[in-house]
Design a protein that fits this description.
The chain is an alpha+beta fold. The protein is built from 7 helices and 7 strands; from the N terminus they run H-H-H-H-E-E-H-H-H-E-E-E-E-E. The chain binds iron/sulfur cluster (SF4).
Length: 185
C-alpha cells in the first residue's frame, strides 16, 4: 500500500513536469540532475556524485550533463586542488527556471489544504528515509545539519570530516559524505 502510494505520487510528479510548458525542452533525467545540483553542497557537485545520486550509469549521466551544458543551464569549473576533478554549478537561467517550477503547484495546493497534517507527513517520510538509510547500504546524500560530522558554531557550522567551516545556508544542503547522527535536530 505504501509502495503504491509512493509510486502514484512519483508518477503524478513526472506527468506534471512533462506537461509543464517551461520544461518542454528538458528530459526527465536532465531535470533530475538540475534539481540535485540545486540542492547539493560543494563536496557533492561532481559528475560522479550526480551519477550516484540518480543511481544511473556513468554514460547516461555524462550525456545528460553535456546536454545541460550545451543548453547553458550548467557550467563546469576545475577543482582548485585537484585539476582532474570538476565541479558543476547552475547558471542564472537554470536557477530562474527551477524557481519558476518548484515546488510543483499541485503539491503546494494540496499541502496547503492539509495544513498541519502536511508537516506531520513530511516528518514521517523523513523518518522512513532515515530508516531505509540506516538499514540498507545506500549512499548518504542527507541534509548537512543532520550529519554526525556537523558541529554548529556561532557563525554557521563546521564539518569535522573535511575540517572546514560551513556557511549557514550550507547546513541546509545535501551531501554525498553525509552520515546519520544518532539524534537529529
Ligand atoms: S558535516 Fe557531514 S553533511 Fe555536512 S559537509 Fe561535512 S560530511 Fe557533509
Amino acid at each position: 500500500m505504501l509502495f503504491d502510494l509512493l509510486e502514484r505520487l512519483s508518477s503524478l510528479t513526472r506527468v506534471w513536469f512533462r506537461q509543464h510548458p517551461l520544461l518542454a525542452d528538458l528530459q526527465p533525467i536532465q531535470l533530475s540532475a538540475l534539481l540535485y545540483l540545486a540542492r547539493c553542497n560543494r563536496y557533492s557537485n561532481t559528475p560522479l556524485a550526480v551519477t550516484e545520486y540518480l543511481g544511473l550509469t556513468k554514460g547516461t549521466v555524462s550525456q545528460s550533463l553535456k546536454a545541460l551544458e550545451a543548453k547553458g543551464l550548467i557550467v563546469k569549473t576545475q577543482d582548485v586542488a585537484d585539476k582532474r576533478s570538476v565541479h558543476l554549478s547552475l547558471t542564472e537561467p537554470a536557477r530562474a527556471l527551477l524557481d519558476a517550477v518548484m515546488p510543483p503547484d499541485f503539491l503546494v495546493t494540496a499541502t496547503t489544504r492539509m495544513g498541519g497534517q502536511a508537516q506531520a507527513l513530511e516528518g514521517l517520510l523523513s523518518d522512513l528515509l532515515r530508516n531505509i538509510q540506516r538499514s540498507e547500504n545506500v549512499p548518504g546524500f542527507g541534509l548537512c545539519k543532520t550529519c554526525r560530522f556537523h558541529r554548529q558554531t556561532g557563525s554557521g557550522g563546521f564539518c569535522e570530516l573535511t575540517q572546514e567551516p560551513l556557511a549557514p545556508p550550507e547546513r541546509e544542503l545535501i551531501c554525498r559524505e553525509h552520515q546519520l547522527a544518532e539524534t537529529t535536530e
